[in-house]
TrEMBL record:
Belongs to the KAE1 / TsaD family. Its cofactor is Fe(2+). The lineage of its organism: Bacteria, Pseudomonadati, Pseudomonadota, Alphaproteobacteria, Acetobacterales. This is tRNA N6-adenosine threonylcarbamoyltransferase. It is found in: Cytoplasm. Residues 26-317 form the Gcp-like domain. Its EC number is 2.3.1.234. Its main location: cytoplasm. Binds 1 Fe(2+) ion per subunit. InterPro entries: ATPase_NBD (IPR043129), Gcp-like_dom (IPR000905), KAE1/TsaD (IPR017861), TsaD (IPR022450). NCBIfam families: gcp_kae1 (TIGR00329), T6A_TsaD_YgjD (TIGR03723). Substrate binds at L140, V141, S142, G143, G144, D173, G186, E190, N282. It comes from Tanticharoenia sakaeratensis NBRC 103193.
Amino acid sequence: FRPAPVLAIETSCDDTACAVLAQDGTVLAERVVSQTAHAALGGVVPEIAARAHLDVLPALTRAVLGDAGLNLQHLGAIAASTGPGLIGGLIVGSTFAKGLALARGLPFIAVNHIEAHALTARLPSVAGPGGLSFPYLLLLVSGGHCQCVAVRGVGHYERLGGTIDDAAGEAFDKVAKMLGLGWPGGPAVEALAREGDPEAVDLPRPLYGKPGCDFSFSGLKTAVSRKLEPFGRAALPLRDAADMAASFQACVADIMADRAEHAARLVPDATALVVAGGVAANSAIRQALEGVASSRNWRFLAPPLRLCTDNAVMVAWAAIEHLRARGDAPDDLTVAARPRW
Ligand code: KG4
Ligand code: ZN
């Protein structure tokens, strides 16, 4: 392994991403192509996603290397997300990366996508000059993930709790659909919530105050649907829709803060609460979590949105952290994509 830049590929869901990072974490180039075909279908269609990754990967990789002013021979390693995620996309991205590694005699690093989210906050550009030391508490909240993780070191993670039904982003997307808003629903619900009263609608807060750090959103989603029943297929008056959006959002923020508070007690030696995933874009949720961190004198770290959502910078950085932690052992090219890793 040469201390040269690392090229990384991310294809676990509906974003095709490629990045090149220097060993010190400096981003030399990165691009993300977000698939738009799914919006009209109301969610990610795995087969369409996999084919779209295949269509864009070669040109995307060439463009990213061009942006960085590098060729494949300048690289020290090639990394790819190999799980968890949608199997088709994982196979496309990891096989592409393995092919490049094999052709150029470069080490291949198989990266766990969740681990990449977990280590993003340690990127020098996010952690700041003092860095971010272990342990810290991570709340990963996106359309596909919803979990509390104690991050104790590279390769040392403890899942403290997760959702027992829907992910938080999924709940936002479903409520958005009920309110007649577009997909993805999170940003639309947040925008509408600004016009509404967060206390207008009485909604349940599943698992709130209960021991443990698990999440549940399905009862909340059902409650929203029941409250909307009287309106039938008629369009909801704007005021009611805004009140519902605001009340739902406040509810999710309360649940998150409560679960984070419970998780924080399990990692007493932590010094930071880190939030990642698309839902971390939500300012009401950020504010609630910031409160949990400040009550413990912890740092609150939310990577910039482009690093919170799926990207290849985090994949390259996780590979660099691994190469540092375990010396120069690359992964075998026979390592398989693991949808449930
Ligand atoms: O991390 P992400 O881009 O993709 C994965 O799921 O891996 O997260 C997307 C999710 C979607 O469910 C979207 O509705 C939600 O994050 N989201 C938000 C906001 N922006 C995106 N949820 C609440 N408020 C937002 N502002
Ligand atoms: Zn993700």
